[in-house]
């Protein structure tokens, strides 16, 4: 009856996935159907990922977050990694990108699509090198496409493909003398492969074949931004924008075959440039959902890039980005550990939520309002219930006990809330 | 010859403080003098604070940050607290507010103005209760004013005074049914005192007397916002805005006596309201520097309010705030410990720097550009030199050793920078 959510939407069919999304987002199923038909909302749900809990991604919906995990040389334990995945989902990640880069990656990928309710994404070009255990230059265009097909068959919901760079990009990067060249891992592999083989980008050249694969399984293409700026100085330059233009063209081609598309975005970018960047993406890519990595609003905070990304991500999402890739404190430095992952997720959730409130999404502020009530009434249990991370909040209070239940150890009897409650009740206020 | 920096500026005198500020900010002394004369830049430098390193605060200058410290019931050790102060200064705090709330506060305050090069601020109303060791309701208007004088004589550079609320505010707060009433500690004390005594706000009633004191020592008045919103729901309401209007009136009266003024601002505020709020402050208060606490862009992240404040602070500073009060992860929960203070400072520095870059201040991006170069060339030593917190960055890398010097353990041989350097040099790229 239909191959993809987009095809269904265009045929006027409201799928069960659209219904689920509508309910979560306080919209009517018909509203969601219309947005999916226009490509302004994607529902990443491979037909083979049976246990997926459908989520919509689009600028008018709740901002979603992605967490990168995967088996690596340092962490080869499938079960341990799967536990990380499930706790990321519990902390609120709507998507998991499996960036496994070691050994046989297929069992873990299949485990994910068999058990994990989050959307699963991959970057097939990484896996190509691993899968064939051949060096990059020895891979053929067909090899790359075959890995895309394998991931689709394994039930992956979205794939990042760096389709937007071409041989012209090689000259452009050489001439433009960017400070950071390309910092996209997948993009650099495609670039390097083009340099070594002299061939055109296979993800660009064989885009129609890729569309056939994605259509068959309803895999959403996340059009990777190989030229995403890797430092403030490179942000918004012609390399980035020309690729964006090409991604817009490819979006049209995908939509013509009912294939769902997201566009990936920056990267590193000064705060004053983010709004304009989001606007341009929306016009050039006709409202296709924007998936940003950051943006990091400064380059000088290694160890704290979950914060630089939270600042940029909140502003980006307020101005139209709909999907935030988490960034951990270990970014630029090391493989994130369990605590880094946790910090990264929470920072991304804060950014996403701040943007949802700013966009006045239905019920976005409910929990904030409940928290305010709980604070005024010193209902600490309720405060923990409203908190993004109840455990951490609770333990900070517990380890530094206040003198009074109606205060915290920061202000003690000077607590403004306590003074005001007493003043408004006409009670005497003891401070000393 | 002159009592205050503002008086000097208006008389056409360029003080040594203006010269120092000009040099730090890449401006001419004449530019700084003009801005000080107009009240758009304040240089908080009590005539008795001999060791102060002058800094200018204004929306066209580098964004400054304040750190709250002080002796409390839990921490009565002057030397230990002084060490915290000096390490805050080392981490980049331009101002320290001494919020001491225990015992005899004067020795520590005098120690600060004798030894600390940062601007020193206080909230005299807190100290009134402590100083007289009498309960709030037993203090007289004169008592409050005398404490302001004592702080001025002790060399304090700026004082937060909640001059903008009046008896009318009591009715307004009762009628308006805010979710969080007042959350300003000093503001709530003034409010409670008015309720208990039936008198008018002494900081409003005796404002002229306060101006005489501040003029004599060149103490900058930081006009406190008693009605700053304590939750998203209260942001921008009439209580906040009417107080702001009154603060604008008081600013004019202060300027008429050459007294320097800052205006304090929110608070909790959704991200989409911040720009408008900064604009309104600029017009209503005629460009007087805006000193914000946050703004926190959500209420539901206790344990992570350094992040919610960094998001709001960066956006506020980009839109006109010039001075950020740090917020720690312990906000709303407990007295911050040493690590909380550190996290709060770094988050505030990130926000301030992100805004400075966004405002295109001279040389603001230099360090970011140097970091980008260092990243491209794998010059790790240089990267640590460019980092806001070199120690943390270095230790994250060190504890998770990479396989290659030219990469980190996140990507290993998949490192995009490494691949690009090799590709552009025409070298073979080994990934496996």
Give a nutshell description of this structure.
The structure is a homodimer of 432-residue chains. In chain A, strand 7 (220-223), helix 12 and strand 8 (261-265) form a beta-alpha-beta unit.
Write the layout of secondary structure elements.
The structure is a homodimer of 432-residue chains.
Chain A: H1 5-10, H2 16-25, H3 29-38, E1 42-43, E2 56-57, E3 64-69, H4 78-90, E4 95-98, H5 106-115, E5 119-122, H6 124-132, H7 141-153, E6 158-161, H8 167-176, H9 185-197, H10 202-205, H11 207-217, E7 220-223, H12 238-256, E8 261-265, H13 271-284, E9 290-293, H14 305-318, E10 323-325, H15 338-358, H16 366-376, H17 380-386, H18 390-399, H19 416-424
Parallel strand pairs in A: 3-4, 3-10, 4-5, 5-6, 6-7, 7-8, 8-9, 9-10
Antiparallel strand pairs in A: 1-2
Shape of chain A: globular
Q: How much of the sequence of chain A is in beta strands?
A: 5-15%
Q: Spatial order of the strands in the main sheet of chain A? A: 3-4-5-6-7-8-9-10
The span between the termini of chain A is 75 Å
Helix residue percentage of chain A: 40-55%
């Amino acid at each position: 009856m239909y191959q993809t959510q987009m095809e269904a939407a265009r045929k006027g069919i409201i799928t069960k996935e659209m219904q689920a999304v509508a309910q979560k987002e306080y919209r009517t199923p018909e509203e969601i159907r219309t947005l999916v038909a226009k490509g302004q909302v994607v529902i990443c749900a491979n037909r083979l990922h049976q246990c997926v809990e459908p989520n919509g991604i689009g600028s008018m919906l709740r901002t979603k977050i992605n967490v990168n995990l995967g088996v690596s040389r340092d962490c080869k334990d499938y079960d341990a990694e799967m536990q990380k995945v499930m706790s990321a989902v519990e902390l609120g990640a709507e998507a998991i990108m499996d960036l496994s880069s070691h050994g046989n990656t297929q069992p873990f990928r299949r485990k994910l699509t068999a058990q994990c309710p989050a959307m699963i994404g991959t970057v097939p070009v990484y896996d190509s090198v691993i899968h064939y255990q051949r060096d990059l230059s020895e891979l053929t265009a067909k090899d790359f496409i075959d890995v895309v097909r394998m991931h689709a068959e394994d039930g992956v919901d979205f794939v990042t493909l760096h389709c937007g760079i071409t041989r012209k990009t090689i000259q452009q990067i050489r001439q433009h003398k960017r400070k950071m060249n390309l910092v996209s891992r997948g993009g650099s592999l495609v670039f390097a492969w083009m340099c070594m083989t002299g061939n055109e980008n296979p993800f660009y050249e064989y885009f129609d074949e890729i569309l056939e694969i994605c259509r068959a399984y309803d895999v959403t293409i996340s059009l990777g931004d190989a030229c995403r700026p890797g430092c403030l100085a490179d942000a918004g330059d012609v390399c980035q924008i020309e690729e964006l233009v090409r991604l817009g063209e490819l979006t049209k081609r995908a939509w013509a075959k009912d294939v769902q598309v997201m566009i990936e975005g920056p990267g590193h970018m000064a705060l004053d440039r983010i709004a304009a960047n989001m606007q341009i993406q929306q016009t050039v890519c006709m409202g296709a959902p924007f998936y940003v990595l950051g943006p990091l609003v400064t380059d000088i905070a290694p160890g704290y890039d979950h914060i630089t990304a939270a600042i940029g991500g909140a502003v980006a999402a307020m101005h139209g980005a709909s999907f935030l890739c988490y960034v951990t404190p270990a970014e630029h430095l090391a493989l994130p550990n369990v605590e880094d992952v946790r910090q990264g997720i929470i920072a991304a959730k804060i950014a996403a939520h701040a943007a949802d409130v700013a966009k006045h999404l239905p019920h976005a502020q409910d929990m904030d309002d409940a928290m305010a009530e709980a604070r005024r009434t010193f209902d600490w249990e309720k405060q923990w219930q409203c908190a993004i991370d109840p455990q951490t909040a609770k333990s900070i209070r517990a380890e530094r006990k206040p003198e009074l239940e109606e205060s915290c150890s920061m202000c003690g009897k000077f607590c403004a809330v306590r003074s005001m409650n007493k003043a408004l009740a006409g009670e005497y206020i003891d401070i000393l």
